[in-house]
């Protein structure tokens, strides 16, 4: 299960805090060039 994978990663790397900013101002400029594709990329990076 994915939760088991998450627990294992937290054990290896330490606690994690993840939040999704609702303001476009917080998204790095380079991600704004092609907003639709890059928002998905940004969210996937956070997930990892």
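-> sequence recovered:
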């Amino acid at each position: 299960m994915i939760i088991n994978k998450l627990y294992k990663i937290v054990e290896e790397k330490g606690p994690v805090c993840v939040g999704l900013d609702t303001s476009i101002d917080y998204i790095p400029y380079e991600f704004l060039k092609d907003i639709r594709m890059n928002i998905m990329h940004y969210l996937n990076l956070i997930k990892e």
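The CA atoms of residues 35 and 48 lie 20 Å apart.
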